[in-house]
Amino acid sequence: MLASILAIVGNIPYLRDVIKGKVKPHPYTWFIWTIVSCVVFFGQVAKGAGIGAIPTAVSEIFTVLIFLFSLKYGFKNPPKRDKYFLVIALIGLIPWIITKDPTLSVIIVVSIDLIAFIPTLYKTYRHPSSETQFLYGTNVVRHSLILGVLSSYNIATMLHSIVMIITNSIMVMFIRRRSD
């Protein structure tokens, strides 16, 4: 329950900051995250995550909203290389569509998630003020809590949270650079 609340508490201010123009989410990244979170949620449910899947569902609602708002308020004119990451991430969905295996699907989409994160990591490293650390910090805590309440521990239920703890921690470090 606390992890779901953190998903709400972390995402509402971020969404507000997007609308106000304080942060500039990368639309490619948020588009892929929308797909990934959906696949991870259904993979977690299929492999017995139990209540540990609820925060993923709550977060998915905000991921969709942030993606939609990123189209209007987000990072504009992404470099050409970012389009390559988008294409690679989308191509990565093909094995998932073919296999329909929850564990393999989660492994594939988490790999896609990492690829999709690269443009945002690069943008944030170069422009740390284009993001706020609150969302990414709450994501670290939320995914740590999720790992503690899973009904079943396996690759399909754990991998996404482990990767999110690492990548969101890196985002926090990049954002904090602006104050150094």
TL;DR of this structure?
The chain has about 180 residues and is an all-alpha fold.
Topology readout:
Layout: H1 2-20, H2 27-46, H3 54-73, H4 80-91, H5 93-99, H6 102-126, H7 133-149, H8 155-176
Helix pairs in contact: 1-3, 1-7, 2-3, 2-6, 2-8, 4-6, 5-6, 6-8, 7-8
Shape: globular
Determine Rg (CA atoms, Å): 15 Å
Return the structural class. Answer: mainly alpha
Number of structural units classed as domains:
1
Query: SSE order, as H and E?
Result: HHHHHHHH
Q: What is the number of helices?
A: 8
Separation, N- and C-terminal Cα atoms: 35 Å
- Please indicate the percent range of residues in DSSP E strands (runs of 2 or more): under 5%
Q: How would you characterize the overall build of this protein?
A:
There is one protein chain. The N and C termini lie far apart (35 Å). The protein has helices at 2-20, 27-46, 54-73, 80-91, 93-99, 102-126, 133-149, 155-176. By secondary structure, the chain is mainly α. The chain has one domain. Helix 2 (27-46) runs antiparallel to helix 6 (102-126) and helix 7 runs antiparallel to helix 8 (155-176).
